[in-house]
Amino acid sequence: MLNPFYQIVDNANWLPRLLPVGLKLVQLRIKDAEEDEVREQITLAQELCNQYQTQLIINDYWELAIELGCDFIHLGQEDLDDADIGEIRQAGLQLGVSTHDENELDRALDLEPDYIALGPVYPTILKEMHWEPQGAENVRRWKEMVGHIPLVAIGGLSVERASEIYDAGADTICVVTDVLYNESPEERLQEWLELSIERQAE
């Protein structure tokens, strides 16, 4: 079962700040780095997440994740084009997959993933998106279609918008900038964790 709050970081150096606050689900998403640097970052993230009993998910680098003994990866649709799903499953890794439309959802469901992500729920400043914001209604539709598979909502989400998206059926809310770009990332993370604890208790 996924934690209802999910943070993405672009560098393992965030983890000494965020893990002591109580973060229990984090994705390491590194872009445009040499393989040796990625290997070092994953190794550091593993050590820190093990120390704090936090689930670490590696974005994209599935071969390194297998090599280094990770247990969970996340793949985008473009990543799926080059990934060896059989090798990933044989290595025992859990798998999360990004989706943005129904064709991508069908592709993801065929893989029997451990979660499906839908985004962007709201407009996001993180990167240029080719898809219109999904909104709460599509979150509701996706949850009906994925059934028992955990649904992760991502994109433009904030503490203030979270309740609507949880109520629409998201099992987990994933953020990047709402914490990392905040003036006080630790305090913002604490707000998220308090909200997620309330959701778990319901």
From TrEMBL:
Catalytic reactions on record: 2-(2-carboxy-4-methylthiazol-5-yl)ethyl phosphate + 4-amino-2-methyl-5-(diphosphooxymethyl)pyrimidine + 2 H(+) = thiamine phosphate + CO2 + diphosphate; 2-[(2R,5Z)-2-carboxy-4-methylthiazol-5(2H)-ylidene]ethyl phosphate + 4-amino-2-methyl-5-(diphosphooxymethyl)pyrimidine + 2 H(+) = thiamine phosphate + CO2 + diphosphate; 4-methyl-5-(2-phosphooxyethyl)-thiazole + 4-amino-2-methyl-5-(diphosphooxymethyl)pyrimidine + H(+) = thiamine phosphate + diphosphate
The keyword Nucleus is assigned to this record: no
Cofactor(s) recorded in Swiss-Prot or TrEMBL: Mg(2+)
One Pfam family recorded for the sequence: TMP-TENI
UniProt superkingdom: Bacteria
Annotated pathway: Cofactor biosynthesis; thiamine diphosphate biosynthesis; thiamine phosphate from 4-amino-2-methyl-5-diphosphomethylpyrimidine and 4-methyl-5-(2-phosphoethyl)-thiazole: step 1/1
GO molecular function: thiamine-phosphate diphosphorylase activity
Catalytic activity, EC: 2.5.1.3
CDD domains: TMP_TenI
Annotated keywords: Magnesium, Metal-binding, Thiamine biosynthesis, Transferase
Gene3D superfamilies reported in the protein's UniProt record: Aldolase class I
Enzyme class per UniProt: transferase
Residue ranges annotated for the Thiamine phosphate synthase/TenI domain, each copy included: 11-178
Family note: Belongs to the thiamine-phosphate synthase family.
Entries under NCBIfam families matching the protein: PRK00043.1-5 (NF000734), thiE (TIGR00693)
This protein's name: Thiamine-phosphate synthase
Organism from which the protein derives: Kiloniella antarctica
